[in-house]
Amino acid sequence: MSILTNGNGTILDSILATTSTADTCNVIDICRTRYTIVWSSLVTILACVWTAVHRNVPAPKRDGELQFWRIVGGVLGTVRIVVVTVLVPEWVLAWAVRQFLSARDVGHELEEARGEAKKKWEAKQETLKGMTPSRHGEGLVTGEQPQTTANATSAEADSSGEKLEGRQVAYDDSTVAVNENTGRMRGKWTARHGFAVVMGGFHYYALGEPKHPLSRDDIVKLVASGEVVPPTDEEIRNWSQSDVLSKTLAVVQTLWFIVQAIARHIEGLSITQLEIMTLAYTVITVAMYVAWWDKPQSVGGPVRIAVKKLPEPNQVDKVEWYEHIYNVVSGGQDRFVDLRKERRVPTFYGGSTDDGNGISADLVALVAAMAFGAVHCAAWHYDFPSDAEKLIWRVSSLAIVALPAAIFALIPLLVIIASTSPNSTLELVFVVIFALVFAVSAPLYIAARSLLLALSFSTLRSLPPEAYRAVQWTLRIPHFT
Prior knowledge:
Elements (H helix, E strand, L loop, with lengths): L2 E2 L4 H9 L16 H19 L14 H21 L1 H40 L26 E3 L5 E3 L7 H10 L8 H8 L3 E5 L2 E5 L2 H9 L8 H7 L4 H23 L6 H19 L11 E3 L15 H10 L24 H22 L10 H34 L3 H35 L20 E2 L1
Parallel strand pairs: 4-6
Antiparallel strand pairs: 1-7, 2-3, 4-5
Helix pairs in contact: 2-3, 2-9, 2-10, 3-4, 4-6, 4-7, 4-10, 4-12, 10-12, 10-14, 12-13, 13-14
C-alpha cells in the first residue's frame, strides 16, 4: 500500500501552482490514476467488511485435533462471512440486529434469574442461622474454580479423602467466598453477557470432553438454580482477540475515504461509480458496528460449563427442507436449531426464539437496504460511457430502493392481519400475496445488485478527465492511497 506524503512543502506548492485548471490532469504526482481509484475503493470495502464481521464462537478443541487446522478453519469461517457480507450485506445486517435484540433480552432474563437465585441463597442463610453445621457443612464444596463461572462437579473429596456429593449450586458457602474474592458475585448480567450466550460462548463439558453449546434457555435455567454466576465485564471484554490497531486503521481508512468523497463533491470533481458503491458499503457496515458494539470479536473458544445434570431441553420442531430454506432467508432458522446436536452454534445463528425480534431485524435490514440503494442514486446525473449504461444504472438503483420498500410495507400488514383477523382465509390469501411479492422481488433485487456491481467496474474504462484530479488540499496530509 503506497503512502502519499506532503514531503517538501515548497516543492509541493510549486507543483500545485503549475497544475492546469482545465478539465485535465497533467501532473501525475498530484493526480489520481485508475489503479489508485480501484485500490482505495477495494481496500475501504475490505476494511469495512472485515472489521465489521463478528463471527460466533468456534467449536472447542477436541483431543487429537491439530491447532493448525483450527486456525485454518477459523480463517476460512471468517472469509466465508466476509464474502456473504460483500454479496448480501443487508442479510448479514439482519443477523447482527437479530443477535443484538436477542442479547439484550437474554441479558434481562439472566439478571432476573440471578436475582432469583440470590434471594433463595439469602433465605437459606437466614434459615441456617443458629443451626449447628454438619460434619462436612451443608452445601460445602471445595475444588478449583473454573475460568469465568462457578460450575459444579459430580464429586469432590474433602480433607479426609471421603467423596462429597457434588452440589449444583454457585450460591454455596465456599463458592460464594471464591466468587466474592474474584469480583463475580458483584457482577450483573448485561447485554454483553447476552452476546456471549447467543454466540455460543458457554459450552457443556462432561468427563473432560466438549459435548455441545448451551442455549439461552439452558443458561437462564442454570443461573436461576444458582449454578452459574456472571463473568465480570472485564472478563467478557478480554474474550475479544481482535487487534485494536487493525480496527483503528480500518476506521481511519473509512473516514478518510468519506472525507475525500465529500471534498470532491464540494469542489465539483467527479466521483466514480465504484466510489459511490464503496460509500454505500460504509453506510451499511456502520450499522453492523452499532448492532455488534458489545459483541466480543474473534473469540478463540467457549467457556467450559460442567454440571451434574442439565435442564430439560425445550422441544425443537422439525421442518422440511424447503421450510428450512425459507427460514434461513427470512432469519427464522434459530427456533429450529437443536444445539444439543451441534458442536457449535451455526455460523449465522442469532439465538432468537421470538418472532418479534426476527421481524424487527428484517425491518431494520430492509431500511438499510433502501439506504444502500439510495446512495447509488447519487450517481443519477454522472457521466457514463454510454446512454444504455446510464439507464441500467438508474433502473437498478431505483429497483434496490423500491423492492425492499415494497416488502417493508407488506410485513406490518401481514403481522396485523395474522394477530387480529379471525378470518383464516384472509390471512392465507395475504400470506400467498406476500410470498409471491417476495419470490418476484428477490431475484430482481439480486439482478439489480449484480448489474450495479458490474457497472461500477465497467465504467472505469471511460472516466471524465476531472475524475483523475485529486483534491489538492488532501495532498498536504499524509494518508493511505
